[in-house]
Design a protein that fits this description.
The structure holds two protein chains of two kinds.
Chain A lengths: L3 E4 L2 E4 L5 E7 L5 E7 L5 E8 L2 E5 L6 E7 L2 E6 L8 E8 L7 E2 L3 E5 L1
Parallel strand pairs in A: 2-11
Antiparallel strand pairs in A: 1-3, 3-8, 4-5, 4-9, 5-6, 7-8, 9-10, 9-11
Chain B lengths: L3 E2 L5 E4 L4 E7 L4 E9 L6 E6 L3 E5 L2 E6 L4 E6 L8 E9 L6 E2 L3 E6 L1
Parallel strand pairs in B: 2-11
Antiparallel strand pairs in B: 1-3, 3-8, 4-5, 4-9, 6-7, 7-8, 9-10, 9-11
The chains are: A mainly beta, B mainly beta.
């Protein structure tokens, strides 16, 4: 009965590699988000999608490319990974007309 | 100036006491406010939302909003050791659909 799920939970990779993180929600929500939580635990919005349409791109480097194949899924592809990309990436979702967002378990990305 | 500011703590209270967590915000356009609890190594968990001035109570939690002072607070009554976590304050501007978070306040409830 997981509401918002992400895979993988942990991702360790080398600089320069390309990796993807997947997110799925079974809450019937129409908006999904990617947030980044850095080593100082500061949580910051990266992208939001509403019904598969990108509505917020918060000055994220274009090495990060989100894709939403349908409103229940939101993936994040990262090209040419850099050390500074190491962080925990959280997916979240919310319902139309409401602002409460529900977070997935997070993906801890470590770039070496 | 950060958009949402919180004291990083730690705020230490004895078990059974009231814990008071505070948050200020700089953007008057902000309309919706949220408190999330985050245990170490876990994801943020929504515990309260508040949209209008005044108090909102849910169990042991009370959120307070004062838009004139641009101030949001969270009171936790009868604090338990299991309440020990980082509490994140967040705001949302009408129509923006993206939360802006404070840096969080770490709460320690001493048994």
């Amino acid at each position: 009965d997981t509401a918002v799920s992400q895979t993988p939970k942990y991702l360790v990779t080398q600089m320069g590699n390309d990796k993807s993180i997947k997110c799925e929600q079974n809450l019937g929500h129409d908006t999904m988000y990617w947030y980044k939580q850095d080593s100082k635990k500061f949580l910051k919005i990266m992208f939001s999608y509403n019904n598969k349409e990108l509505i917020i791109n918060e000055t994220v480097p274009n090495r990060f490319s989100p894709k939403s194949p349908d409103k229940a899924h939101l993936n994040l592809h990262i090209n040419s990974l850099e050390l500074g990309d190491s962080a925990v990436y959280f997916c979240a979702s919310s319902q139309a007309g409401l602002y409460e967002q529900y977070f997935g378990p997070g993906t801890r990305l470590t770039v070496t | 100036q950060k958009e949402v500011e919180q004291n990083s703590g730690p705020l230490s209270v004895p078990e059974g006491a009231i814990a008071s967590l505070n948050c200020t915000y700089s953007d008057r356009v902000s309309q919706s406010f949220f408190w999330y609890r985050q245990y170490s190594g876990k994801s943020p968990e929504l515990i309260m939302s508040i949209y209008s001035n005044g108090d909102k109570e849910d169990g042991r939690f009370t959120a307070q909003l004062n838009k004139a002072s641009q101030y949001v607070s969270l009171l936790i009554r009868d604090s338990q050791p299991s309440d020990s976590a980082t509490y994140l304050c967040a705001s949302d501007k009408t129509g923006r659909r993206a939360l802006t978070f404070g840096s969080g306040t770490r709460l320690q409830v001493q048994p």
